Amino acid sequence: MSAITTTNLTKKYGQFTAVNELNLSINEGELFALLGVNGAGKTTTIKMLSCLIKPTIGDAFVLGNSINVSPHLVKQQTNISPQETAVAPNLSVRENLEMIAGIYGQNSKDAKQSTITISKQFGISGIMGKKAKTLSGGMQRRLSIAMALISQPKILFLDEPTLGLDVLARRELWAGITSLKGKTTIILTTHYMEEVEALSDRIGVMSEGRLLAVGTIAELTAQTGTTKLEDAFIALTRGAI
Amino acid sequence: MRTSIFAIRNAKEILRDPINLFFGLAFPVVLLFLFSMINSAIPPEANNPMFEPGQMTPGVAMFGTTFMALFSGMLLSKDRTTSFLMRLFTSPMRSVDFILGYTLPMIIFAMVQSLITFFIAAFLGLPFTVHTLLAVVVTIPITLLFVGLGLLCGSLMNDKAVGGICGALLTNVAGWLSGVWIPIDLIGGTFKEVSGALPFYHAAEAARMAIKGNYSEIVQHLVIVFAYAIVVYIIAVAVFHQKMSGDKV
Question: How close B74 gets to chain A, by Cα (Å)?
Answer without folding.
Answer: 13
